[in-house]
Design goal:
Layout: H1 5-15, E1 19-25, E2 31-37, H2 43-48, E3 50-53, E4 66-71, E5 77-78, E6 85-88, E7 90-94, E8 103-104, H3 109-123, E9 128-140, E10 142-147, E11 152-157, H4 193-205, E12 210-215, E13 222-227, E14 230-231, H5 232-252, E15 256-258, E16 274-280, E17 283-284, H6 297-308, H7 310-317, H8 323-326, E18 336-341, E19 346-350, E20 362-364, H9 373-389, H10 411-414, H11 424-433, H12 436-439, H13 446-464, H14 469-475
Parallel strand pairs: 1-6, 18-19
Antiparallel strand pairs: 1-2, 3-4, 4-7, 5-6, 7-8, 9-13, 9-14, 9-15, 9-16, 10-11, 12-13, 16-17, 16-20, 19-20
Helix pairs in contact: 3-5, 3-9, 4-5, 5-9, 6-9, 7-9, 7-11, 11-13
Length: 478
Amino acid sequence: MFKTVAEVQSFCKENGIKMIDFKMIDINGRWRHITIPVARLTEDTMTYGIGFDGSNYGFAAVEKSDMVFIPNLASAQVDPFVENTLTMTGDVCIIGAVGEENRPFDQYPRNVAIRAQEYMKETGIADQMIIGPEFEFHLLDHVSYECKSNKVAYEVDTDQAQWNTGENEVQNFGYQVPQHGGYHIAAPQDITYDLRSKMCLLLEEWGVKVKYHHHEVGGSGQVEIEVELGEMLEMADKTMIIKYIVKNEAVKNGKTATFMPKPIFGEAGNGMHVHMLLFKDGKPLFFDEKGYSGLSDVAHWFMGGLLKHAASLCAITNPSTNSYKRLVPGYEAPVTIGYATSNRSAVIRIPAYAKSPETKRFELRNPDATCNPYYAYAAILMAGLDGVKNKIDPELNGWGPYDYNLYNLSDEEKAKLQGLPKTLDEALDALEADYEYLTAGGVFPERLLKLWIKNKRAEASKINQIPHPAEFSQYYDL
């Protein structure tokens, strides 16, 4: 939006902006922020940055925890959810010694993604990775949850859910959405249309081009916003913007939004499918009209890398215990390590509608939005590049193509297929045994990956130790 501090100051004066808010990403992918009065933004800010204590952001210990945030003026936008505030993102550096320049903090999520792009260019394989995430989430009217020694419970509700067909305490107009019956459903059942449109218009104002929005399969408030494709780093930035706008606009309109992979038992879960394609010198690398489904050797090798490393990738693209409650048969979520055209039961789907050289692509279907998008997109790129470097053929390795519904196979046939991890611990085991492709070129620092594994194991252990209400239902009277 801006190129100079003077432009920022002039805009703020003309538009009554009083504060400038800086947003940074912690290790898990949450935005944190620090705010200054407009007058405090100077040329020195751009040179020396805004100091903060990085130890509270969850990264692996470094020799000094004092870091600086360097704003990116081009990212500035007027924040629609707070008063008189201009917001912007940027990069994080470690403070250099006297006479030395600050250096990029190698664990900072955005810096990892930047380094992954640089490494891609260094390999000579490609100079652009274009991706398109799809954002599934739930819009709810109420959520409550408790986790105490004597009480573990949660409750979600939405007026449109099938369980409210018999509601008599408040006025009930009917038109609830059947379980699994929400895909593309129209008004009056689609009660969040106007809210989604508001979200999409805000996204457009922030430079996020929206492809479409619609109601999803889950009858209890599951919806989707899909955006146009863009470069990997740009789309990681936009992923953060999308989640920020969706959550805040929902609250503003008396709703609550969650991107949890599986917030409601028995309904479809929320994925974040990632479409991808590579370019070099402006030319698409994934198209070959003679190849399977119109895909080139490079595309097949890239898929081969993703499939070879699929289990370890899950520790980064699906980093929550809740992720694996979504990755189960029967809900259009992938469970099998394989690829095919127009097959939603395989982890890689090749859209049949993408036929031109410039649009020929495939989608990775297992990721979800509990991931840190910078780490996830960088890891996807690194796995694919490893496949191209080593010419990993997915067909020769027995990963497909599976041009049939994998859910309908017999148990004996399913036993011959490779499956995705069934728990977060299984995914972490895979990452512990298979992470060299991530550290290639210094993209992911090894100490960051070790910390990630340690932290996520602690999360899983804590949750696994908590008695579950379903266990009381199953075992209390034994």
